[in-house]
């Protein structure tokens, strides 16, 4: 068990290191001098060469790439991701402020999608080729094809402006969370519904399901106790991977609903070429992504006893 | 006594997109309270569908007519509630393949406990509580636990206390089937419907399960409906037998009279083609019907009604050849004198002290960390195979017999010892020359999975030819040639495997193995997946081919009757080693190793004199795990004649009675068990010396008894 843990921590570190290198590299490769852009934006007029040079010296931008990266990395290891070029606020603080908002949104979206997808997928499989199945397939198709932002605006229009049910923008209350979570969750729900359906169809043919029926288990339990748990094994993997896309989608949805969060932070920083923030956001996203994947592995073990539990079997 | 089951004129129909099939076409029979009734037939006879219809699991079929009455109640029209009640309390069913019939994500304890809960209150089944019951891997309540333990002991699961919280994948096939049986017994059924309950198991395990069923029937008065393709199994256990063919019951009567004096020609033909009833190496009669090419799939077996079955023998006698070339006089003449003019050259294949082991884990980390534990699969095996000779290889699953085939075929690498082909040392397939590759053909067990469904028969056979660099026209000619060798029309080259029956698929597999004119053919359970009548035809074909082409066969089988029929010599394998090698008729009539005797005892329906009837339940213990083999003789935990010494001394393979045997008391235990103790001392001393001379790893092993 300890060995497994060490292995996982090792791979986590390796992935984060790679991500930091790539993100740092890409940011430095982007055309345009951040010093010039930023100073210009601050003064509202083109800065002089001396001012640019001073800015570059202050933020270490005149050093060679490797030196820049190493010094950033060593700071980062101590938890200091640098400061914003604009506001001089520490990046770590900014991240810690927006991360919970985004996680809240992502988790809520996952919950919405699973709550929609699992029962729909199961119903679809159980009532294969009936109107229930066809309707849910059609809805799923719509869900996949509809862009997030469009659904978001649509929901704002209907629920907030016409019906006045929920606040249109901002964050803080549950009411603020509902529309963004639905917006973000439907796309995923559509994917998961199809997955659950396929997986259930296969499992319902399995002989152990027939055994359960022959035992006199009632049909609802045959489906939810004997079949569903087996069917969820492949689903969990995909859902775990999809979490990355949910984080992605959060960027857009946050902008649409003007929710503070990693997404808004990132978009603002990109436009302003506030590189330390961009790097910080990328790093944190990667971190969350890798950690979810580890959690998925754990869920796997819980669902399927055949998965080797880190070598603790003789 | 319990209630009676009456099936009357049952008809079940399958509708597929293209056709409707009457899987059961008017079956009628009765299972009296407490009786054991056997339902026999070949695949496609409708026996399984009939059995399932009784518990109303006939889906995707549909009962279109007839009635099923249990305890006076009509089942064909019963509603779901009543059916659930019946399934939960009265009619329990056990299915064929235990590795797929248990739910992999719940512990066996929970699966048995669930059945108990349903029996106690079939109407309740609270949704959330049931869902929650499956989540934890331990059974919580003590009372339930002890009930489950009791059931596990009833079906003969040793160390039930340690295994109750284990998952099905941690159990062997035999143990899984016992769990399934425990689940059935949990319902205290008055009728148990067992659908091929032992087909997927070793004969030793099968014998134990059958004994268990007989005992349960005697103790509890539980009626049993046993569905099987195996007349031996059925006649051993059952009071009455129902024989089904093409959806109808063709014979129904007391087991004894059906067996000894069958009325219907089909039953007669079925009994005749059983290899253990025939003279060794003779031609087997085959229950034959219109030429095989009319039968692309099992759904349309040819009609029987009204036609008298012709066996091969009668066809030949009468001068008509029902199956084309099958009974040509040339072959007949040759098979008439089996083995008499066999060439006695040097051996073609020799194995010397061959060993192979597998990595326990393929994970890179494990290899890097040097945790490279290897499980021995084959250990110190020596064997030679001559032209025209058949060596039978028998043993329980996991004993290493298939590994030996794979090693000889070059599909696996040896870790020690050498394999020689015509005197030259050969390695794995990659290092063999084209000629060497061509010299060894292989046929695997399941023809439907060993043939690529996307290739035509012709393409399948052409594959090895193509590899060997034959040009197109030569390939075409050869395909036609080998197809005629295996008695398939040349037109079959364009067909796909799904258009062929199981027996025809196996013929194609044999044709592929013969394509490059090998001198050795390795046959890994070539008939295990086939019906008995098909098996008989394939065995005849193999005998013909051997006579014509002077082939050497290494014939792997778990079925001693088949091996007795076809093999000149037998090698019995246990835990990766040969325990007895010798001429077939001697080894299988007067074995010198107790394990061979065990296998003989386990043959269902075997009433021959060589059957000593040791307590089968004890013998059915499972082979110990190869990772930790027992000290001394590997067989001692299961050996009925083991002594103190057997737990310490590892017996060598010694020449005894025309063969070689690995037992301290080789042959002696047969004549007189008491004499043995007198001879004990000397025997042990010599063994000790031989053993210390041979620095075999087995002696130094610190393994403990795995179970
Ligand atoms: S050596 Fe002993 S334990 Fe082994 S087979 Fe012979 S009698 Fe049985």
From TrEMBL, chain A:
Spans through the membrane: 9-27, 105-126, 138-165, 177-196, 231-257, 277-303
Pfam families the record matches: BPD_transp_1 (PF00528), BPD_transp_1_N (PF19300)
Annotated keywords: Cell membrane, Ion transport, Membrane, Nickel, Transmembrane, Transmembrane helix, Transport
Domain of life: Archaea
CDD domains, per the entry: TM_PBP2
Gene Ontology molecular function terms on file: nickel cation transmembrane transporter activity
PROSITE patterns reported for this sequence: ABC_TM1
Keyword Repressor: no
Compartmental location: Cell membrane
Cellular component, GO annotation: plasma membrane
Residue ranges occupied by any ABC transmembrane type-1 domain in the UniProt entry: 99-300
Keyword set includes Nucleotide-binding: no
InterPro entries linked to this entry: BPD_transp_1_N, MetI-like, MetI-like_sf, Opp2B
UniProt topology in membrane: Multi-pass membrane protein
NCBIfam families, A to Z: Opp2B
Family matches, as PANTHER family: DIPEPTIDE TRANSPORT SYSTEM PERMEASE PROTEIN DPPB-RELATED (PTHR43163)
Family: Belongs to the binding-protein-dependent transport system permease family. OppBC subfamily.
Protein name: ABC transporter permease
Organism: Natrialba swarupiae
Automatic annotation (TrEMBL), chain B:
Pfam family membership, one: oligo_HPY
Keyword Transport: yes
Taxonomic lineage of the native organism: Archaea, Methanobacteriati, Methanobacteriota, Stenosarchaea group, Halobacteria
UniProt GO BP: peptide transport
Database matches in Gene3D superfamilies: P-loop containing nucleotide triphosphate hydrolases
Highest taxon of source: Archaea
Protein name: ABC transporter ATP-binding protein
Location in or out of the cell: Cell membrane
Native species: Natrialba swarupiae
CDD domains: ABC_NikE_OppD_transporters (cd03257)
């Amino acid at each position: 068990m300890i060995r497994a843990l060490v292995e996982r921590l090792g791979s986590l570190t390796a992935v984060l290191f790679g991500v930091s290198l790539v993100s740092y590299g890409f940011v430095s490769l982007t055309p345009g001098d951040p010093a010039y852009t930023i100073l210009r934006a601050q003064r509202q007029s083109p800065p002089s060469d001396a001012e640019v040079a001073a800015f570059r010296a202050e933020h270490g931008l005149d050093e060679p790439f490797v030196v820049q990266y190493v010094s950033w990395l060593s700071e980062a290891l101590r938890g200091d991701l640098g400061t914003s070029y604009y506001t001089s606020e520490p990046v770590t603080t900014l991240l810690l402020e927006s991360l919970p908002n985004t996680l809240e949104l992502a988790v809520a979206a996952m919950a919405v999608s699973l709550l929609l997808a699992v029962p729909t997928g199961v119903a679809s499989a159980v009532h294969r080729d009936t109107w229930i199945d066809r309707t849910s397939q059609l809805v799923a198709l719509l869900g996949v094809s509809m862009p997030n932002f469009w659904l978001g605006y649509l929901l704002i229009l209907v629920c907030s402006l016409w019906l006045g049910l929920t606040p249109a923008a901002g964050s803080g209350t549950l009411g603020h969370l509902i529309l963004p979570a639905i917006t973000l969750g439907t796309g995923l729900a559509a994917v998961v519904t199809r997955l659950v359906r396929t997986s259930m169809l296969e499992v319902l043919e399995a002989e152990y399901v027939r055994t359960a029926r022959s035992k006199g288990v009632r049909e609802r339990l045959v489906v939810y106790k004997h079949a569903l748990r087996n069917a969820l094994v492949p689903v969990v993997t995909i859902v775990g991977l999809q979490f990355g896309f949910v984080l992605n989608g959060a960027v857009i949805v946050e902008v649409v609903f003007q929710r503070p969060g990693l997404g808004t932070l990132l978009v603002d920083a990109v436009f302003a070429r506030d590189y330390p923030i961009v790097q910080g956001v990328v790093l944190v996203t990667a971190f969350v992504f890798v950690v979810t994947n580890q959690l998925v592995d754990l869920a796997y073990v819980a669902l399927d006893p055949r998965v080797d539990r880190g070598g603790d079997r003789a | 006594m319990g209630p009676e089951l009456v099936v009357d004129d049952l008809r079940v129909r399958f509708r597929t997109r293209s056709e409707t099939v009457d899987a059961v076409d008017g079956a009628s029979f009765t299972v009296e309270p407490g009786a054991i009734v056997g339902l026999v037939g070949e695949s496609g006879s409708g026996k399984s569908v009939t059995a399932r219809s009784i518990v109303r699991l006939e889906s995707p079929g549909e009962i279109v007519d007839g009635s099923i009455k249990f305890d006076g109640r009509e089942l064909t029209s019963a509603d779901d509630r009543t059916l659930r009640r019946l399934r939960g309390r009265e009619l329990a069913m056990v299915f064929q393949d235990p590795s797929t019939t248990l739910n992999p994500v719940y512990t066996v304890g929970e699966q048995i406990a669930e059945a108990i809960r349903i029996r106690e209150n079939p109407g309740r089944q609270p949704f959330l509580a049931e869902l929650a019951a499956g989540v934890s891997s331990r059974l919580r309540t003590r009372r339930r636990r002890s009930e489950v333990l009791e059931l596990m002991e009833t079906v003969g699961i040793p160390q039930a206390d340690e295994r109750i919280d284990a998952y099905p994948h941690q159990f062997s096939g035999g143990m899984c089937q016992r769990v399934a049986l425990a689940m059935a017994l949990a319902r205290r059924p008055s009728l148990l419907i067992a659908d091929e309950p032992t087909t997927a198991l070793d004969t030793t395990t099968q014998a134990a399960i059958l004994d268990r069923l007989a005992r349960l029937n005697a103790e509890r008065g539980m009626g049993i409906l046993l569905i099987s393709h195996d007349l031996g199994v059925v006649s051993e256990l059952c009071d009455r037998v129902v024989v089904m063919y093409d959806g109808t019951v063709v014979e129904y009567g007391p087991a004894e009279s059906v067996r000894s004096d069958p009325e219907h020609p089909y039953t007669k033909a079925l009994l005749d083609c059983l290899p253990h009833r025939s003279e060794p190496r003779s031609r087997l009669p085959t229950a034959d019907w219109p030429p095989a090419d009319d039968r692309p799939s099992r759904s349309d077996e040819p009609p029987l009604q009204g036609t008298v079955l012709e066996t091969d023998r009668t066809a030949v006698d009468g001068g008509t050849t029902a199956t084309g070339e099958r009974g040509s006089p040339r072959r007949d003449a040759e098979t008439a004198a089996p083995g008499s003019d066999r060439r006695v050259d040097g051996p073609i294949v020799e194995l010397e002290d061959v060993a192979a082991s597998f990595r326990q884990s393929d994970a890179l980390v494990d290899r890097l960390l040097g945790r490279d534990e290897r499980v021995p699969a084959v250990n110190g095996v020596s064997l030679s195979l001559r032209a025209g000779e058949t060596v039978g290889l028998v043993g329980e699953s996991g004993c290493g017999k298939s590994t030996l085939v794979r090693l000889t075929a070059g599909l696996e690498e040896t870790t020690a010892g050498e394999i020689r082909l015509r005197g030259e040392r050969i390695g794995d397939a990659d290092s063999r020359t084209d000629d060497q590759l061509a010299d060894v053909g292989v046929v695997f067990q399941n023809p439907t999975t060993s043939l690529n469904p996307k290739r035509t028969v012709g393409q399948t056979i052409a594959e090895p030819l193509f590899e060997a660099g034959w040009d197109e026209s030569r390939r075409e000619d050869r395909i036609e040639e080998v197809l005629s060798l295996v008695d398939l029309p040349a037109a079959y080259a364009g067909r796909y495997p799904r258009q062929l029956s199981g027996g025809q698929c196996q013929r194609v597999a044999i044709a592929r193995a013969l394509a490059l004119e090998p001198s050795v053919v390795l046959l890994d359970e070539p008939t295990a997946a086939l019906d008995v009548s098909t098996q008989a035809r394939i065995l005849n074909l193999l005998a013909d081919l051997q006579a014509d082409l002077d082939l050497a066969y290494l014939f792997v089988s778990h079925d001693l009757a088949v091996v007795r029929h076809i093999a000149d010599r037998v090698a019995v394998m246990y835990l990766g080693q040969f325990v007895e090698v010798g001429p077939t008729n001697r080894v299988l009539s007067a074995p010198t190793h107790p394990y061979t005797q065990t296998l003989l005892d386990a043959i269902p329906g075997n009433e021959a004199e060589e059957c000593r009837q040791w307590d089968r339940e004890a013998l059915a213990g499972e082979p110990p795990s190869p990772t930790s083999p027992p000290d001394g003789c590997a067989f001692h935990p299961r050996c009925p004649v083991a002594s103190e010494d057997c737990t310490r001394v590892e017996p060598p393979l010694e020449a005894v009675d025309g063969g070689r045997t690995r037992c301290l008391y080789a042959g002696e235990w047969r004549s007189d068990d008491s004499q043995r103790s007198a001879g004990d001392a000397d025997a042990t001393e010599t063994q000790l010396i031989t053993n210390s001379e041979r620095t075999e790893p087995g002696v130094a092993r610190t393994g403990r008894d795995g179970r």
